[in-house]
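Good morning C.,

I know you're traveling, so I'll keep this short. The sequence:
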Amino acid sequence: MVGDVFARGPADAADPLVRRPRLIATPRVAWYTETMFRRSAEVFAASLRRYESGPLPLWTVNEPAFRR
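The tokens, ready to paste straight into the viewer:
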């Protein structure tokens, strides 16, 4: 395993990690539900409104890129 994904996909059913009895392996899109999609849009809109009014967007990673 590399990071949070398998090095090659789909995961091999014989892989010792996959065979662990308490492991639940999900596709990378496991977070995607209608609720999360709607919430992501709400957070994006709030961040955009925040940026337009002056402060940096929420969770800014590259602050120098936003310098005015």
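Safe travels,
E.
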